[in-house]
Specification:
This protein is α/β, with parallel strands linked by helices. It is built from 13 helices and 17 strands. A hairpin with a 2-residue loop joins strand 16 and strand 17. The longest helix has 18 residues. The two termini are about 30 Å apart. Keywords: Hydrolase, Metal-binding, Zinc. This is Amidohydrolase family protein.
C-alpha cells in the first residue's frame, strides 16, 4: 500500500463552527486518502516517504461551485454594469466566440490552469451552448486530474440570435453531450439551463427528461436579481417560485441541484431547496459587481440550507476562492449593519467551511482532512512577517485576505504532487 506522510501546521473545518488545527503534526495518506493525523509518526509507518513542510500551513484545496469557464477572458471588464446590460453588452457576444475551437481551446486552457494555480481543484462549470467546445473543457479538466461538473448551456428564447438554439437542437445537442461522457469518473456532466428567462417551458421539461435518462443534476441561476426573479414568474405563469420551475420539471431528482446566488429567495424557494438538499452558491464578488444584493447566508444556513462558494467568473473578477472567503465575511458585516434584525456576521471559520468541506461534498469526500477524505491539499507559505510568529488560524485568515497564488508552495490531488509550472 502506497503511504505518504506530510508534516506541517494542518488545518481544516469538520463543521461550520469548528476549526480543527494540528500544529507541528503529521498527516498520514494511504493510496491518496487521509488515514490519520498525529504528533509523531506511528511505528508502522517508519520508513515511509515524508514531505516535511516545517511550519507551513497545510489546508484542503478549494471548491468553486459556480464559475463560467467561457467568461474567463472577460474577468474585470464591464464591472460598471448591472446584470442585464452586462450580459447583453459583454457576456453574450463573448460566449458566441466559442463556436471557434481555436479560441475556445486558448480560453479553456488558461482557465483550467489558473484554477489550479489558485488552489481550486474541484469546480462546477458553466460552458456555452457549443457542444464541441464544452467537450474540450470537460476533457481538459479530466486531463488535469480535477474533480468537476461541466454543463453545456441551454438558451432557446429571449437571447441574442447569435446565441440562441432552437428547442429541438438544444435538447439534441445536450443529449449527445451527456451520452459522450457516460461512465466518466471525477469529472461529470450536469444540465445547465442558463436561467428561466432564457429557457422555454418545453426546453426545461425536455431537460427534465434527460435528467431522468442520464441520471444527472442541474446547475443554473436562481433569484439572483429582482429582475430575474420577476421575469422567471412572468415567463412561467402558474408557478409559485423560481425554484418550482426546476422542481416541476424533475430537474432536482436525479443528481446534485446547484443554484447560483439565491439572493432574493422566497419562503417557497427555500422550502424546495431544503427538500432536495440543493446547494445555494454565494458569489460575493459578483454580488457587488453586477447583481447588487447580498445572499442572506447566515439566515439560510440557520434554516438548514446548504451553502457553497463560487467565484462566478466573470461576474466576479478574481478566480481565487480564498478571496471569496474573506469577501463573504465582509459582506455579512454590511448585511448585519443594514439589516440588524435579520442578519449576523459570519466567521472566517464558517466561510472557509463553505468553501472547502460543504462545497466539496458535491464531489464526494473532498474538502476536509477527516479520515477517508482525499488528500487534495495546498501548502501555504510566507504569511508571517519575519520578526513575529502567527498561529495557524491567523495564517489562514491572512491568506484569505491578502494572499495569492504565490503563497501556494505545493498542490496535491489524490496525494499526488502537481508538478507543472505555475
Amino acid at each position: 500500500m502506497a503511504v505518504k506522510i506530510y508534516h506541517g501546521d494542518i488545518l481544516f473545518t469538520p463543521s461550520a463552527d469548528r476549526l480543527e488545527i494540528h500544529e507541528n503534526s503529521y498527516i498520514i495518506v494511504e493510496e491518496g486518502v487521509v488515514s490519520q493525523i498525529c504528533e509523531k509518526i506511528p511505528e508502522q509507518y517508519q520508513g515511509a516517504e515524508v514531505a516535511d513542510y516545517g511550519d507551513k500551513l497545510i489546508i484542503p484545496a478549494f471548491s468553486d461551485l459556480h464559475v463560467h469557464g467561457a467568461q474567463y477572458v472577460q474577468r474585470g471588464i464591464g464591472m460598471g454594469c448591472l446584470l442585464s446590460d452586462w450580459l447583453n453588452h459583454y457576456t453574450f457576444p463573448q460566449e458566441s466566440r466559442f463556436q471557434n475551437m481555436e479560441y475556445a481551446k486558448n480560453c479553456y486552457d488558461a482557465f483550467v490552469d489558473d484554477m489550479l494555480r489558485h488552489g481550486t481543484f474541484h469546480a462546477n462549470v458553466f460552458a456555452t451552448i457549443h457542444r464541441e467546445a464544452t467537450n474540450y473543457l470537460f476533457d481538459k479538466m479530466e486531463e488535469k486530474g480535477m474533480y468537476g461538473y461541466v454543463g453545456k448551456v441551454n438558451m432557446d428564447c429571449n437571447s441574442p440570435e447569435f446565441l440562441t438554439e432552437t428547442t429541438e437542437d438544444s435538447l439534441k445537442e445536450t443529449e449527445k453531450y451527456l451520452a459522450e461522457h457516460e461512465g466518466s469518473k471525477k469529472v461529470k456532466t450536469i444540465l445547465a439551463p442558463r436561467f428561466a428567462p432564457t429557457c422555454s417551458k418545453p426546453l426545461i421539461d425536455g431537460l427534465g427528461k434527460l435528467a431522468a435518462k442520464y441520471h444527472c443534476g442541474v446547475h443554473t441561476h436562481l433569484v439572483e436579481s429582482l429582475w430575474e426573479a420577476q421575469e422567471a414568474l412572468n415567463l412561467f405563469p402558474g408557478y409559485g417560485s423560481d425554484a418550482e420551475i426546476y422542481e416541476r420539471a424533475g430537474l432536482m431528482d436525479h443528481g446534485p441541484s446547484i443554484f447560483a446566488h439565491v439572493i432574493f429567495p422566497t419562503e417557497e424557494d427555500k422550502r424546495i431547496l431544503k427538500k432536495h438538499g440543493s446547494f445555494s452558491v454565494h458569489c460575493p464578488d459578483a454580488t457587488v459587481n453586477i447583481i447588487a444584493g447580498i445572499m442572506p447566508l447566515q439566515h439560510m444556513e440557520a434554516e438548514g440550507l446548504k451553502i457553497a462558494m463560487g467565484t462566478d467568473i466573470a461576474g466576479g473578477h478574481g478566480i481565487g476562492i480564498y478571496r471569496q472567503v474573506a469577501r463573504a465575511v465582509q459582506l455579512s458585516k454590511l448585511k448585519e449593519f443594514y439589516e440588524p434584525q435579520e442578519s449576523k456576521t459570519i466567521t472566517i471559520t464558517q466561510a472557509f467551511y463553505h468553501a472547502t468541506k460543504e462545497s466539496g461534498s458535491v464531489f464526494g469526500k473532498v474538502g476536509s482532512f477527516e479520515k477517508g477524505y482525499a488528500f487534495n491539499a495546498l501548502v501555504i507559505d510566507n504569511m508571517e512577517d519575519p520578526w513575529t510568529k502567527m498561529t495557524a488560524e491567523e495564517k489562514l485568515e491572512r491568506f484569505c485576505y491578502i494572499g495569492d497564488d504565490r503563497n501556494i508552495k505545493a498542490r496535491y490531488i489524490d496525494g499526488e504532487l502537481l508538478e507543472q509550472e505555475f
